[in-house]
Write a structure and sequence with these properties.
The chain has helices at residues 15-26, 38-44, 65-74, 87-101, 116-130; strands at residues 7-11, 31-35, 53-57, 79-82. By secondary structure, the chain is α/β, with parallel strands linked by helices.
């Protein structure tokens, strides 16, 4: 990994979740920015520096993470979609939306995490394992 870590953009309407993910990722050397909804996400990706990956909640006001996926796919920005609700249903929706937008690949859903802090730790471990450029 370079001297300056990869930039992760978090989109989540829950302030506690944003703070938790930020702390977990920054402790592992990632640069982190955050926005409060899908509309702010779309606005942010218009400018440099471009995020290396986006972590987005599925259900947010103004514009959902699901509805923001096409703009991410269009710009070639990888996304991790998180949601606490109906993991199987959400996975199917995400795959369909990503495929419709032209996404070349999709990941399988992660097993449910009992504690939010564990989700942040798992997320940062997975990102560092992929050594985002």
């Amino acid at each position: 990994m370079s001297e300056v870590g990869p930039l992760v953009l978090i989109a989540d309407d829950d302030e506690d979740t944003r703070k938790l993910l930020r702390r977990a990722l920054e402790r592992r050397g990632f640069r982190v920015e955050s926005v409060v909804d899908g509309q702010a996400l779309i606005e942010r990706i218009q400018f440099d520096p471009r995020p290396d990956v986006v972590v987005t909640d599925l259900d947010m006001p103004r514009l959902s993470g699901l509805d923001a996926l096409p703009a991410l796919v269009q710009r070639g920005i990888p996304a991790i979609v998180v949601s606490a609700l109906h993991p199987k249903l959400n996975h199917d929706l995400i795959l369909r939306k990503g495929a419709a937008a032209g996404a070349a690949e999709a990941a399988t859903p992660a097993p449910p995490v009992r504690r939010t802090v564990a989700a942040g730790e798992s997320l940062s471990h997975g990102l560092s394992a992929h050594q985002l450029a």
